[in-house]
């Protein structure tokens, strides 16, 4: 059996059922897996992936292995691992996994170092913890890495900062910035799964409540849209004037967090930044306010501030809910320890939307191996996105028009005016 560190291999039967169920809704990735199995484009390549270990990710791992990759998979968040899926990947699919739900900080980074010690030629990341650790602690291994794929907004922010500072030493692809990813995964995936996680954790009735959405990027847009559709009065807080304007014209209230804190029933951070909700906001919140995060890292809510303000803390008053009692008796409920609510309290994005994201990951990996790329943060090639989009439409039974030769000529010319 491959090397591994998972909770319990006896969980594998249930994990296999989840993997197979997700695979039913991932036809584009399945099509790629069939070609990879035949063509072996990743033959002999050592790969290390730091991703959320879910049923959907399992099908990406199966695709990479089918293509010939020698893969090690570790978790990109301590609370996002589905232990039965991790067990099944090891036992049923012979893929090396190091991930346990609830693993502590030390174990989390031990697993990441195990992935790096695999001496990867290709890496995948969701938040850039693997790549940043590789650069900081294993600079001698960088020369072997042909490329890396980054899955999330937070990771892209970190990688662009590394490149700007001259610290980045390998080519990386901003998979998150691909339209086949952020327009669908971020908007529809995060939007729906964030709602799912909050309701599972709290049994919260959305209709009539004031829901504060911190951040109006694609994830924030998706979540705000769904809250509005379920009857909430949605308030958006932003620091970007264009996004604030867009939120206002989409019909949402827009105000500073200092004002929203006074009236919100539910607060959700989806920004990718640090301490979006902090002491001065907690001090203004009303009794019973619920606070959750759907950004990648657990830094968007300043939990230290909340701890300092509280005279009492009651853990797990409900699964994934901690109660903080402030000095004046007001209660604030923190969900999932401030970690990704959609994965900590639910199952993450639906498989159908991850079909496109992970198809983009798989094909971009193949592209990275076939091309010698300069050190930079690269965009996913348009031909990959177009192929995935057309393939997805085909699986949905949707046909679209094609440009005529006359139309192509018109779009490429300048002579014809009014």
TrEMBL record:
Residue ranges of every copy of the S-adenosyl-L-homocysteine hydrolase NAD binding domain listed in the record: 186-348
Cofactor(s) this protein requires: NAD(+)
Superkingdom of this protein's organism: Bacteria
Subcellular location: Cytoplasm
One GO BP: S-adenosylmethionine cycle
EC numbers on record: 3.13.2.1
Catalytic activity line of the entry: S-adenosyl-L-homocysteine + H2O = L-homocysteine + adenosine
GO cellular component, one term: cytosol
Cofactor detail note: Binds 1 NAD(+) per subunit.
Binding positions for substrate per the UniProt entry: 54, 126, 151, 181, 185
Pfam family, one: AdoHcyase
Alphabetical list of Gene3D superfamilies matching this protein: Adenosylhomocysteinase-like, NAD(P)-binding Rossmann-like Domain
PROSITE patterns assigned: ADOHCYASE_1, ADOHCYASE_2
Binding site for NAD(+): 152-154, 186, 215-222, 238, 294-296, 342, 349
InterPro entries hit by this protein: Adenosylhomocyst_ase-like_sf, Adenosylhomocysteinase-like, Ado_hCys_hydrolase_NAD-bd, NAD(P)-bd_dom_sf, S-Ado-L-homoCys_hydrolase_CS
Record key words, sorted: Cytoplasm, Hydrolase, NAD, One-carbon metabolism
Pathways involved: Amino-acid biosynthesis; L-homocysteine biosynthesis; L-homocysteine from S-adenosyl-L-homocysteine: step 1/1
UniProt xrefs under CDD domains: SAHH
GO MF, any single term: adenosylhomocysteinase activity
Biological function: May play a key role in the regulation of the intracellular concentration of adenosylhomocysteine.
HAMAP family recorded: AdoHcyase
Family: Belongs to the adenosylhomocysteinase family.
Protein name: Adenosylhomocysteinase
């Amino acid at each position: 059996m491959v090397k591994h560190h998972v909770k319990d291999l006896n969980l594998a039967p249930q994990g296999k059922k989840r993997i197979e169920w997700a695979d039913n809704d991932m036809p584009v990735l399945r099509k790629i897996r069939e070609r990879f199995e035949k063509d072996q484009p990743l033959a002999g390549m050592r790969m290390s992936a730091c991703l959320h270990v879910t049923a959907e990710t399992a099908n990406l791992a199966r695709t990479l292995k089918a293509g010939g990759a020698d893969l090690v998979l570790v978790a990109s968040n301590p609370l996002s691992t589905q232990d039965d899926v991790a067990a099944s990947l090891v036992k049923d699919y012979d893929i090396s996994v190091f991930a346990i739900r609830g693993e502590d900080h030390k174990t989390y980074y031990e697993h990441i170092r195990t992935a790096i010690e695999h001496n990867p030629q290709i890496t995948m990341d969701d938040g850039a913890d693997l790549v940043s650790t590789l650069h900081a602690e294993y600079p001698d291994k960088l020369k072997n890495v042909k490329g890396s794929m980054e899955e999330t907004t937070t990771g892209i922010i970190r990688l662009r900062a590394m490149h700007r500072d001259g610290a980045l030493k390998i080519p990386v692809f901003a998979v998150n910035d691909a339209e086949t990813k952020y327009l669908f995964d971020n908007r529809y995936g995060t939007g729906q799964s964030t709602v799912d996680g909050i309701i599972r954790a709290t049994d919260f009735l959305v209709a009539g409540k004031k829901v504060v959405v911190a951040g109006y990027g694609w994830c924030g847009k998706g979540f705000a849209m769904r809250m509005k559709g379920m009857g909430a009065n949605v308030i958006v807080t932003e620091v970007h004037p264009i996004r604030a304007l867009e939120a206002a014209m989409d019909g949402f209230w827009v105000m500073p967090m200092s004002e929203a804190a006074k009236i919100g029933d539910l607060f959700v951070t989806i920004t990718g930044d640090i301490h979006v909700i902090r002491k001065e906001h907690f001090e203004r919140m009303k009794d019973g306010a619920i606070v959750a995060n759907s950004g990648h890292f657990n830094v968007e809510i300043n939990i230290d501030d909340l701890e300092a303000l509280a005279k009492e803390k009651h853990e797990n008053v409900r699964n994934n809910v901690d109660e903080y009692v402030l000095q004046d008796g007001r209660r604030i409920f923190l969900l999932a320890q401030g970690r990704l609510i959609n994965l900590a309290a639910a199952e993450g994005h639906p498989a159908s939307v991850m079909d496109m994201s992970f198809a983009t990951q798989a094909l971009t990996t193949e592209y990275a191996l076939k091309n010698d790329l300069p050190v930079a943060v690269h965009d996913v090639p348009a031909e990959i996105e177009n192929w995935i989009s057309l393939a997805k439409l085909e699986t949905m039974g949707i046909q679209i028009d094609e440009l005529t030769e006359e139309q192509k000529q018109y779009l490429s010319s300048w002579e014809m005016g009014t």
